[in-house]
Amino acid sequence: MGLLIDGKWHDQWYDTKKHGGEFVRESAKLRDWVTCDGSPGSDGQRAVPAKAGRFHLYVSLACPWAHRTLIMRKLKGLETVVGASWVSPLMLDQGWTYHEDEGASGDPVNGVEYHRELYTLTDPHYTGRVTVPVLWDKKEERIVNNESAELVRIFNDAFDEMTGNRLDFYPADLRKTIDAVNEDVYEHINNGVYKSGFATEQAVYEKHVTALFEALDRVEARLAENRYLAGGWLTEADIRLFTTLVRFDAVYYGHFKCNFRRIEDYPNLSNYLRELYQWPGVAETVNMEHIKRHYYYSHDTINPTRIVPKGPLLDFGRPHDRERLAGQGVRKKG
Ligand SMILES: N[C@@H](CCC(=O)N[C@@H](CS)C(=O)NCC(=O)O)C(=O)O
């Protein structure tokens, strides 16, 4: 894995030494929006107008951040409106690739071999990490946005007029609750597993893994009373937690040493995970083969033999008990 500096590829692992053994995630840099009419995004940032067939989503099926956007694309009925391609699960010295022999889809839009080429096509002098997901604008021939949290919001709103899909995963009156939950879940769970797993100092690992399990306890308690994280409605907060939970027992527990407990050991979290997995459309976005191969094979500082474990034997399709709590599904706009 590596990064671009002034448009040139450097094969380089995260520099944790610079931060006392900490993994520090770089902020996404390409942050324009897509809105229904091209008016600026909620932060005043430039936007381009939504059009069927104009945009293409590039993801990794292994990546929890990319997975959020794939679920939203599915639940918002965008599959015929926004195309999608996925990289190989192996992220090695050339970074993400579209090598079909390794399980990638190939790239039907730009025909690139390496994901980083999408970044240098956008800006020949790009400096920064080369991450998935990205949303490509075929008209302006550039990446519009490479921040999954914003792509989730774009998919929630921008294409509604053409799809007629009115589902609202970020309803105005629940935003305060959603934002607060997102902050805790992002800091301690979504990113917490990475901060634990990529730590290169014992004390740093222990600090983050402890904070991770404290946050899981908070969520477990919340889900004892609430069907979903923001109450009775399923929102983006649930999608964002789901993508970490579904990887947890197979990857984060072992590979990232997040092993106080498995998700299976939490009554509420495990039932909640199964309910979301069984939500129509969601299971089709989960690819355990890509997930396991990516982490165990690509992070050779953590798993130098690159042996991918056969287990654990997981069955997210078995019944859950969440019907005991009141739930209304997904809110509709208007
Ligand atoms: N802020 C980004 C983070 C995305 C991200 O870090 N993706 C990982 C894959 S799980 C990646 O592509 N990493 C490559 C690298 O850091 O070099 C988002 O949420 O969209």
TrEMBL record:
Any one Pfam family here would be GST_C_2
Organism the protein comes from: Billgrantia zhangzhouensis
Which Gene3D superfamilies does the entry mention? 1.20.1050.10, Glutaredoxin (3.40.30.10)
- Read off the InterPro entries from this record: Glutathione-S-Trfase_C-like, Glutathione-S-Trfase_C_sf, Glutathione_S-Trfase, Glutathione_S-Trfase_N, GST_Omega-like_C, GST_Omega/GSH, Thioredoxin-like_sf
UniProt protein name: Glutathione S-transferase family protein
Q: Where is the GST C-terminal domain?
A: 171-298
